[in-house]
Amino acid sequence: MKYAIVFPGQGSQSLGMLSDLSNNFSIVKDIFSEASDALDLDLWKLTQEDEEALNQTENTQPAMLAAGYATYKILSNEVDLSPICMAGHSLGEYTALVAAKSLHYFEAVKLVRKRAELMQSAVPVVLVQWQLYLGLMMKK
Fold first, then answer.
1. Could you read off the pLDDT of 69-86 as tens digits, one per residue?
2. Cα separation of 26 and 39, whole Å?
3. Given this model, what pLDDT does residue 130 score?
4. How far from 5 is each of 8, 10, 73, 88, CA to CA, in Å?
5. DSSP letter string over 32-89?
6. Where along the chain do its domains lie?
7. How far, CA to CA in Å, does 110 sit from each of 23, 40, 102?
8. Residue 71's closest CA among 53, 90, 88?
9. H-helix or E-strand containing 113?
10. Which of 9, 42, 82, 84 is an S-S bond match for 90, by CB 3.0 to 4.6 Å?
């Protein structure tokens, strides 16, 4: 059978994600620990205890990369995976690159954090421009 593996993007996060898997597979916390080392913050604790912080883009993106990669590693350790391709929705494409061994995980964590910071810094500018545009349109 031919199949692809597709990884989710931002918006799929939830407080306590992977807690059940971590009880049965130590690799979950190992992967989150490596991400924590790359970011100098306890990413596992954040995903388990702080919903507000988890939903901040600069934390969500590394957390989703770690969650997707941990899930992939568990699955690949349990069954022989041979997908014809891997892909991802937006942020998920980084997880696909790591799973395909095209990007090193530690570097990917730092990269998606930077990506998230840049995305977040662009939001206020876009919102201001959009508000100005709407204001001009309403005056017509």
1. 999 999 999 999 999 999
2. 20
3. 62
4. 10, 17, 12, 8
5. HHHHHHHHTS-HHHHHHH-HHHHTSHHHHHHHHHHHHHHHHHHHHHHS----SEEEES
6. 4-139
7. 26, 10, 15
8. 88
9. helix 105-139
10. 9
Domain 4-139 CATH assignment equals 3.40.50.150: no
Structure tokens at 110: 């730092």
The model's pLDDT over 99-121, given as tens digits with 9 standing for 90+, comes to 999 999 999 999 999 999 998 88
d(CA 32, CA 64): 10
Q: In this structure, which amino acid lies at residue 129? A: Q
> Which residue has 């100098």 as its token pair?
40
* Number of other CB atoms surrounding residue 116 within 10 Å: 20
Distance CA 12, CA 85 (A): 21
Which residue in the block uniquely carries the two structure tokens 């930077």? 114
Q: Tell me how far the alpha carbon of residue 98 is from its chain's centroid.
A: 12
